[in-house]
Amino acid sequence: MILRLGSIIRKEFIQILRDRRTLAIILVIPIMQLFLLGYAATTDIKNVPLGVWDQSRSPQSRELLDAFRSANYFTIAYDVGSLDDVRNLIERGEVRGVLIIPPDYPLHVSKGDAQVSMILDGSDATAGSTALSAAQLIGQSYATTVLANQTDLIGMSAGIKPPLEVRTQVWYNPDLVSAYFMIPGVIGMILYAIASILTATTIVRERERGTIEQLIVTPIRSWELVVGKILPYVIVSFFDTFEVLIIGHWWFGIPVRGDLGLILITSGLLLLSSLGIGLLASTIANTQQEAYLTVWLTLLPSIFLSGFFFPLEAMPPVLQAVSYIIPIRYYLIIIRALLIKGVGISAIQNQVIALTIFGVVIMGLAAVRFRKRLD
User: So what CATH class is 48-153?
Assistant: First the structure.
């Protein structure tokens, strides 16, 4: 049995090494996904181009602009001189917002009732909302500094206290780096996409070439054929997982706080579902193109309804209900908790149980259907 199984596995690895497209998918695409999503798909808003219409031209207004520069959220890119300039810059997309400082700003600063305006481009809702929050925080911080300086000058700092002090703490990701959220999700997407697509297409390719019949007439059992065909892609998927983990840790600084063994075990549970979906697709499709499209029918909902890009809590209740039948939904909760929070099994046991059930059921159905088709 071991010799028969080893022969199938050896044949599959030889086929992988000879197929340059498969090698590119296995080795290059995970790295491309990692860097594209790690850098491009980010919710961190930094260096937002900002126009400034400073009608005051006073030391006080320059201090306010210095506060905006030092926060690293904005880059003062244009000096605006009229409302038409404001409109033109925003319409052309050259700035995300314009800060307007009125001419009587120094007078009102001394009175304690100064106001400035911030016009933001709302066409990009994510960038706009984040820039709005950043502008408000910078303004509050600067106002507090001005208040402290004024009270020090008149010797009343001990008698004037703000009515409310809010102290915030951010656990696990103090700088709110979006790569901490995105890169663990890349691991799930790689395990799901590569395992299911390669498993589906490689089995259909055997059928297209007529070699599947040759394998059937050899003295091997159907389950040995199934295991021999999918085991190489299990090894390849784990290789890609380590590849993303290592690059994500050393390049992006993603922490690996959880137990590595638990990470591998839960990744294996997701692989059960991924390989099962690929195996099911191979029993439905007659060509590699059909197999690829069949897998993509499940891949697209998994991307958008798993919490990979968008928080599940923000979705309509119907879509939240649909997400419960998507295995990768549970894995993303698991992998983010293990890498970022360093939790133990007790914190993720519900997700592990759900992932196990999905993996066993999907792989069981796929194996039964695949064996019947061989027969």
Answer: alpha beta
